[in-house]
């Protein structure tokens, strides 16, 4: 909060309820080099009610909070979806900030300083970007190929011959058996005609 008291048209006295205790300067993201003064507890996130509003789709609405502590700030993650990082390491509890620490939320990175940084010094900074979190989604597994089914076999006709051949063979076998039976009966009974007929048919076959 800032209140202005005009002593004259050319002179203004500025009274701050809270003095500036640090700065966040954008070094990765939109508006590079833009510095944000920190006066007290400062919340960060996409919600426009935050002190530090970050228009980044990977940043939560209420992502993190900066708390004044012993001439510096403590940085605390507020249960964000993608985490809060300091110098590339994700934090899980309030972390004391040191000058020139790099704070990364989403795809946006800030430089924390106690004094407003010189714009010429920002170009030489090497930013330690946070490592992307490993995906926990299980990779789809290929379904095993089903083994081809063996060709069906007709137990009555294992060689898959045409049906007329099978019937013909069966009929021929029956005729042979009947003629052999007639020949045997003719020999046993003594009928020469039956025996002769059977022998002639066997010879013809």
Q: What does this protein structure show overall?
A:
This protein is α+β, with helices and mostly antiparallel strands and 205 residues long. Among the domains are: 22-113, Tumour Suppressor Smad4; 161-204. It has helices spanning 119-122, 163-189, 192-204; strands at residues 2-6, 12-16, 22-28, 35-38, 42-45, 52-53, 64-69, 72-77, 84-86, 89-90, 95-96, 101-105, 108-113. It has a 6-stranded antiparallel sheet with strand order 4-3-13-12-9-10, with no helix packed on it. Strands 6-5-7-8-11 form a 5-stranded mixed sheet, with no helix packed on it. Strands 1-2 form a two-stranded antiparallel ribbon.
Lay out the secondary structure.
Blueprint: E1 2-6, E2 12-16, E3 22-28, E4 35-38, E5 42-45, E6 52-53, E7 64-69, E8 72-77, E9 84-86, E10 89-90, E11 95-96, E12 101-105, E13 108-113, H1 119-122, H2 163-189, H3 192-204
Helix pairs in contact: 2-3
Offer a quick outline of the entry.
The chain has 205 residues and is an alpha+beta fold.
Radius of gyration: 49 Å
CATH architecture of the domain at 22-113, by name, is Sandwich
| Class of secondary structure makeup | alpha+beta
Question: In percent, how much strand structure appears in the residues?
Answer: 25-35%
CATH topology call of the domain at 22-113: Tumour Suppressor Smad4
Order of adjacent strands in the largest pleated sheet:
4-3-13-12-9-10
């Amino acid at each position: 909060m800032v209140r202005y008291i005009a002593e004259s048209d050319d002179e203004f006295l500025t009274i701050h309820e809270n003095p500036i205790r640090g700065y966040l300067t954008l070094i990765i993201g939109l508006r590079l080099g833009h510095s944000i003064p920190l006066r007290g507890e400062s919340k960060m996130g996409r919600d426009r009610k935050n002190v530090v509003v970050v228009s980044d789709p990977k940043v939560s609405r209420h992502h993190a909070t900066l708390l004044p502590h012993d001439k510096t700030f403590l940085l605390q993650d507020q249960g964000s979806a993608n985490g809060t990082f300091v110098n590339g390491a994700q934090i899980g509890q309030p972390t004391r900030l040191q000058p020139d620490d790099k704070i990364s939320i989403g795809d946006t990175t800030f430089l924390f300083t106690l004094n407003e940084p010189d714009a010429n010094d920002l170009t030489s900074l090497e930013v330690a970007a946070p490592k992307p979190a490993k995906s926990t989604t299980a990779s789809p597994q290929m379904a095993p190929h089903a083994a081809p089914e063996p060709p069906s076999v007709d137990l009555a006709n294992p060689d898959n011959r045409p049906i007329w051949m099978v019937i013909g063979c069966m009929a021929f076998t029956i005729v042979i058996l009947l003629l052999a039976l007639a020949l045997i009966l003719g020999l046993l009974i003594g009928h020469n005609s039956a025996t002769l007929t059977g022998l002639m048919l066997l010879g013809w076959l």
